[in-house]
Amino acid sequence: MVRIRNLDFGYSRRVPLFQNLSLSLDRGHIYGLLGKNGAGKTTLLKNIVGLAFPWAGTCLIDEQPAAARRPEVLEDLFFLPEEVYAPALTAEQFVAHTAGFYPRFNAEQLYEYLQELEVPRGAKLNKFSHGQQKKFMIAFALAANTGLLVLDEPTNGLDIPSKVQFRKILASALSEERCMVISTHQVRDLESLIDTVVVVHNREIVLNEEIDQLAERLTFATGQEAEAPGAFHTGMSVRGPVAIRPNETGAYSRVDLELLFNALTSADAAPFYAYLNQPSHASVQ
Amino acid sequence: MEFRDNEAIYLQIAGYVSEKILRQQWPPDDKIPSVRDLASELQVNPNTVMRTYEYLQNQGVVYNKRGIGFFVAPDAGANVKQMRRARFLEQELPEVFKTIFLLDISLEELEQRYTEFKAAQTAPLPISTVTSNGQ
């Protein structure tokens, strides 16, 4: 659904943010986009949805350049920025003004989501708290039923019960026809929801892999096993030492996204990249 | 649902579904929750639940009516028990062994305790409930 090829982009000519970056995203998946502060997560999302224009290379949505902003592309695309803008309108007024742009928008779904997220009805959106505004926009974004849904840090500002409801709604909203991209620092919020991890680092995509595949190829070791030599990356947790190693036994260990991220963005990650990029020979299921 | 670190999530969900079937909360030939509904309830990716249902279908625990959904197989109880046995022996028993070994507990002590435990089980095990309530 999304095809980025050889993208170069930056806000200043002297500081390129992406160089020769390529990325493919398909329908039927929830992608988790991870990156350090300043790595360009939001900028990448803006290139995906056509809010930023590539210096070089292409960003396509269903074979159409995103930057051309064709109506048939825009009506099937929703981008929710981290900071939402809530106008002085009630929910009903906002729907009357905005829903027309999304042919598959479902009002019944919106009000169901708003109820589940405990967003009050009737008041004007700009009078809501920041968290309530954000939840309203999340509900609207999901109810728009677009093929491509891009959420930038959606769980920021949500309280604990809202995060649970958010996960429930998101899980029920994924279908074969939808592609969801979520950028986040809060990996624990979304750990069992995202099926594919995308990591942007040093001006390129350093990982785009299904979590199931990672679990097959890697062992996330703890304790004694973590201290044995031959690990790609080691760390410390409350449970004691932790490490990422090649999965040699085929045994399952849960993919620790935080440790994985630290491994990929550490200075000596070269052997780890090399291992991840070699074709998987252990793909016998 | 809290997931453990040492078993794939789709298998842990298979355990959850099996439990419902063994307890007859989901009786034979009843429709089980849709992939979407169970994914939402457990807050997991629907692709994971799909994998669970395909796995359970291969194990003869559920069957698929195309376009309608997944149903509990008539002989699901026996198949679940077999599946659970394999899972226990492969997944849980090694952990128990590890602790037994670490704490130096003798097999005689285990045997005695297990005999006591069995005697205390006046209520029938869940699986025999399934068969006796089957009428």
UniProtKB/TrEMBL annotation, chain A:
SMART domains for the chain: AAA
MF terms in GO: ATP binding
Classification via InterPro entries: AAA+_ATPase, ABC_transporter-like_ATP-bd, ABC_Transporter_VariousFunc, P-loop_NTPase
Keywords: ATP-binding, Nucleotide-binding, Transport
Gene3D superfamilies (alphabetical): P-loop containing nucleotide triphosphate hydrolases
SUPFAM superfamilies for this protein: P-loop containing nucleoside triphosphate hydrolases
Record-annotated ABC transporter domain positions: 2-227
Listed name of the protein: ABC transporter ATP-binding protein
Taxonomic source organism: Hymenobacter mellowenesis
UniProtKB/TrEMBL annotation, chain B:
Name by which UniProt lists this protein: GntR family transcriptional regulator
Domain HTH gntR-type: 7-75
Keywords: DNA-binding, Transcription, Transcription regulation
SMART domains for this protein: HTH_GNTR
Keyword tRNA processing assigned: no
Matching CDD domains: WHTH_GntR (cd07377)
